[in-house]
Amino acid sequence: MLTYLAIFLTGLTALTYQVLWQKQLSLLLGSESQSLALITGIFLSGLSLGYYFWGNWIAKNNKKNIIYQSYGYIELVIGLYAILYPYFFNFILNIHSNYPNSFGINIIFTSLMLGLPTFLMGATLPFMTKVIPITKSSVSSIHAKIYGLNTLGSFAGVILALYYLIPINGNKFTFILMGIINLVIGCYFLSLKDLNKTLSHSTKQSHHKIEALPKNLILSMSLITGLVSIGLEIILFRIVTLSMGSNYHVYPFILSIIILGLGIGSLSSFNNKNNYLSILTNWIFLLIFLVLLYLSMPYWSYWISILRLNWGTAQDSYFLYYLLLYLCLCVLILPSAIFFGRILPQCFSLLQKEAKDFGKEAGLLYFSNTIGTLIGATIFGFALLYLINIDTILIIFLILIAIITIIIILRTRKYNAFLIITPLLILLVWQGNWDRSSHIIGLYRANNKQSYHDGKIFKTPMGRKITGTKLLKDGPNATVSITEFKTKKSTHKSMMVNARTEGSSYIGDLQPQILIGLLPYVYHPKTQDLNAFVVGLATGITPGFLSQLPLINTIDVAEISDLVIKTAAYFKNENFDVLNNPKVFIKALDAARFLILSDKKYDLIVSHTSTHWVSGIENLITPQFYQTVNDRLTPDGIFTQWLQGYETNSQIALSVLKIVGDQFKYYKVFEVGSNEMVIMASNTKLNIPDISKKITNQSLLKISNKLNLYHFSQFEMLEILDKTIIDHIIAKNQKNLFEHHAFKSKLQKRATKAEFLKKNINLETLIDNKNRRRLQQKLTKRHLIHDNLYSFFIENPQHCRKLNSMACQNWFGFNNIFQKFNTTENDLEYLKIYSILRNRNYIPLQKEELIKIENKILTSENKDAKLIKLLVNEYRYENLDKLANEFLEKL
Description:
- The protein has 31 helices and twelve strands.
- The chain folds into five domains: 1-203, Growth Hormone, Chain: A, CATH 1.20.1250; 213-351 and 388-454, no CATH class; 455-497, no CATH class; 503-776, 3-Layer(aba) Sandwich (Rossmann fold); 785-890, no CATH class.
- By secondary structure, it is an alpha/beta fold.
- The longest helix is centred in the N-terminal third of the chain and has 53 residues, at 139-191.
């Protein structure tokens, strides 16, 4: 019993290590698809070599004491390595940056990190298959039990690691805990007392005869199973990402369901007769469920949208919604995974083997299976996605499964099975072309019921009226689509990455894309030869617009997806043909990795990332990344980071601001769009110079055409919070903030919940008026902003004739408030406007005016309660508590 528990726990630790290695090595190699394929490839290569080596080694040993002690020492080494791994990783991380970004160098370092433990992990199945069975007839069923329990342990490892250990305790603690478990397992096997007993399996035969199949065919079945199962897992990641968003739950959901199915499938074959008929039946059912799975996938996005709308976005609904979604995915995916899980035990039972070869044959079988997974992960899950889309890859998988099924039919001469698979293949050909409309724009983002939610089940709506889909292409990293939306006057283009809008030519989207680069340019004190670095390309509008500014010398761009780089060409007119711009140098590489490898210093670093709940973004919002940014900035360099105000909460926004504030001496927050902000940070004071020194008439024309920004005071109007005020808000909310860094990632999980709740935030409401005005006394006064802009627009009446930009909307709204403030004779209206302007530091204290209003109230026969309350509040906000108390006494 304890031995089976140990087998379960080795599966748990192995999958936990895999998750941890994937997370940590992405910091070393980057998060682009090539690096992820390399990590997976080295992991599977080490495992396959382990299966092969230990399978052959154990065939030469029949004494239990040698086998138990050897396996005990193997587990001890794995445990010690896991405990020491965090320290080893930090050492490798420091020296790796001294080497160029070479694929060969990355292979060497990844092999150093993963080679030994994965090789040792390959010993479990061959060793246990050799020592546990007592009779020859029981070896197949015992092997199925071993494989099933080990796989269920892996399922437990996924859930435990991703939902508890890593987000709560961090990577280091999890490594140490898993290492201790391996040490305990090692000590257990060393303590077993069968020291001199030689293995002697009974030759009692099974009560059923197992027919012989060619060994090469059995190993080919094992290889194809590994190839298709891992390839299907990768494709499922992509489909579910397109259907529910690239949030925290996608990876654990798919990984755990696949592993759970494999474990159940293996255990379900524990006491079954594994003859030709059972093998054939299993492959036919596998083909049936895979075809049904393939045909259903285009509808998943719509089904998830219906589920989400019916479930609501209340706080209490979050857990239940994702639990129900998980169960629905189980219904769709588990049947195929279960029949995959039955194949390896069946293959093992069909192998002709002697007692001394049990471990060797098990090792050979899993070696071939793991080679298949290696091919599936690197070729079908990575390389082929440069050439074909995911639906075509799934068709290839179905063809491979159909070929194996047909071969088994021919071998067994069960020709009546063609009556089942022939209609199935006809159905696949007839209905096999996917309608991928729902993969363009994520239907899961709909907050309210749409016209396409009409009760029909099998639909693939687009989500909104799109006149033309110019592109829908799957790449190794992402699915990218380009669409056009035509109006009577213009055509707007949008780029979607994984069914989420990453940028468009709408004025509302242009503003943040341009301002995130323009703001640091305007604020930078240098007046010549500015070098910029941009995190992410997307539509190319940010680096393209920067390239048009006169002081910009060079712009380096790191974009993780090759496909995004290619599709930026569709925005050639909007991004000033950024792909062919001599100032702009674009590299398909993870941004953090780019900066670590670079020795270049930048005046501007711009990070316009996706929303916080999108996988991978959490690595670009860590103290480690911001320290790297600091290292690459010039002494007076400026860094800007996009900050969302929608689908988030104050806890997330303030935690991000605290991380930035801990790395930079000065920072501000600007409003650049509807619920969109930009954090500007530097180690020198951020004071805006005269805009005329930074922008020529030609580039000014381009800015005015896009954003209607004509005067430096318009940039000042965008500022909503300064470091002094932000620090006060953070200190006040310190106990509600959370720790987030590269080795203890908490951001994405919390952001996923915030996205579900669909809440918006206003950071300005997080500080009371009294403290805001007290702190603003130390800040630069903004009293001249209105006078400067009023004079400018009087002299230039042709500007801002239409409210087609946020800049013009801000100005007209701002000017109207000032006009009312200067002309109103209504004291109640005056105090309301006074409060707005004072909170933004646009006017000085008007003490005399407040006293005049007090005198009017005291001499009036009809006392207005609202007016009294407003005046008392204003006295207190201005730290004039004595006047407030005296006023109340007079009343």
